[in-house]
Amino acid sequence: MLKDLLEGKPLRHPIHPMLVHFPIGLFILSFILDLVGLAPSPRPFLVSAAFYAMLLGVITALLAAVPGFVDYTDIRRDHPGKTTATGHMVLNLLAVALYAINLWLRILALNNSKVGLTPLILSFVGIGLLSASGYLGGRLVYDEGIAVGRHKRRTPAPQETIELPRTKSGFVPVPQAEQLRDQETFRAEIDGCVLTIVRIGKALFAFQEFCTHRFGPLSEGAFDGFNVQCPWHNSCFDVRTGKVTNGPAKVDLKTFKMEMRDGKVGVLMTRNHDQKT
Amino acid sequence: MKWLLDILKGTWLGHPLHPILAHIPMAMWPGALIFDLLSQREIGGNAMVRLSFYAIAFGLVTALVAVPTGLVDWSGIKKEKPAWKIGLYHMLLNLVVAILFAVNLYLRWPTFREATEVDPIPLLLSAIGTLIVIGSSYLGGRMVYEYGISVARMSKKKWRQLAAAGGANLPPE
Question: Is A122 part of any domain?
């Protein structure tokens, strides 16, 4: 599937962060060459060199935009990183537009011995935008864990968190869980408590969403038998009991009971849920 | 000493420093190969030869700056983890590639101011170096995307609050 390719699943590494090295590095190089060219003695070769570096930067930026957009659409709608990702994208689009104008201005003046003031200012602004957007992109990976461990998962990750109302009895119907296919997950929030519901074979299991190591999203985890593996640092838990089956996590997950009541499937939210041992 | 470690880890920035710095050599060296190939096709003349030279030099300087930041990140990984070994290979490959590009730069030094075409040996070195830097960067990326190195290192407080608000089981602080 094209989406899997653009997400880098065959490489087990996302494509967008691989390609962004080029525009970031080349735009900075282009700007440094501009600055060196400001020295009094004329160095016309720097004008050309800065132009070629920028040209390759724009080409690679456009290439990087494609998998970047695919990665963006794959982020859960209510993910706290979604706004960061939107900012990252808007800044990048702005930066590429500025660099396109910049290139065009430079083509017209390629034979000059010095770079013009407008292209120089545009480059300066471009570096500012790029630094900010690159920083946000890094935060998406290192803070929000976007694309971390994504390739390990075989089924699509949930696109949103469904908020369900708390009930007096503690039994919360989750009709959507019946539509889940094998190893598919459902991310629900009930009274502030976020949980993952997964179908394994014919059975449904519910457990806390956040890994007990560094709180990775288990609804985006990979399933193998009754094991869920956290996408971030590969901690494994048994979905039936919540028990840690592989570190780095040391604390078991909180699990919730799935039940049928009056023909409806639901999750039992108890205040002091005891873990089965 | 702790302040120095914090600088190198990027704690002050809220973002690990090594992957930021690594962008530069990772872009400069394959970029230099492209500029070399263009110059061989008689595109750009001496400006292209110089551009390639500057790219390699900029890559080398930044690679040196990136070394301590990478070492600090690596030292935080436990030796029995698979990521430790990958980090070791990543480092060794980076060492090889940096030496290759240093030699490459040295070979270009006598001619880059006049030449309109890059010589075959520096070109070959750029090609080999590009392959190695792609390989070593891939390993670096695997450390992040497969093993989560540096992931949620600085944001774990924020995530803990979210998990705690919902009454999830938590690791001891």
Answer: yes
Helices (H), chain A: 2-6, 16-19, 21-36, 44-74, 82-107, 117-142
Most A CBs within 10 Å: which of B28, B39, B51, as the mutation test of the A interface? B51
Give, rounded to a whole angstrom, the gap between the first and last alpha carbons of chain B: 24
Provide ipTM, 2 decimals.
0.93
A87 and A160 inside one domain: no
Residue A232: alpha-carbon gap to chain centroid: 12
B159 and chain A: CB distance < 8 Å anywhere?
Answer: yes
Task: Dump pLDDT digits (tens) for A184-212.
Answer: 999 999 988 999 999 999 899 999 999 99
Please check whether residue A275 lies inside any domain of the structure.
no
What CATH number corresponds to the domain at position A212? Answer: 2.102.10.10
Partners of A45 on chain B (C-beta within 8 Å) are 46-47, 50
In a shared domain, residues A17 and A132: yes
Contact call for residues A115 and A106 (beta carbons, < 8 A) = yes
pLDDT, one tens digit per residue, over A148-184 is 999 999 999 999 999 999 888 888 999 888 889 999 9
Which domain range does residue A10 map to? 2-150
Residues of A in contact with B155 (CB under 8 A): 142-144
Strands A222-224 and A227-229: antiparallel
Count of domains for chain A: 2
The CA-based angle B116-B118-B121, given to 5 degrees, is: 155
Give the H/E segment covering residue A185. Answer: strand A185-190
| Cβ count near A233 (within 10 Å) | 24
Instruction: Reduce the DSSP state of residue B148 to 3 states and report it.
Output: coil
Q: Does A17 touch chain B (CB under 8 A)?
A: yes
Measured between CB atoms, does A28 come within 8 Å of chain B?
Answer: yes
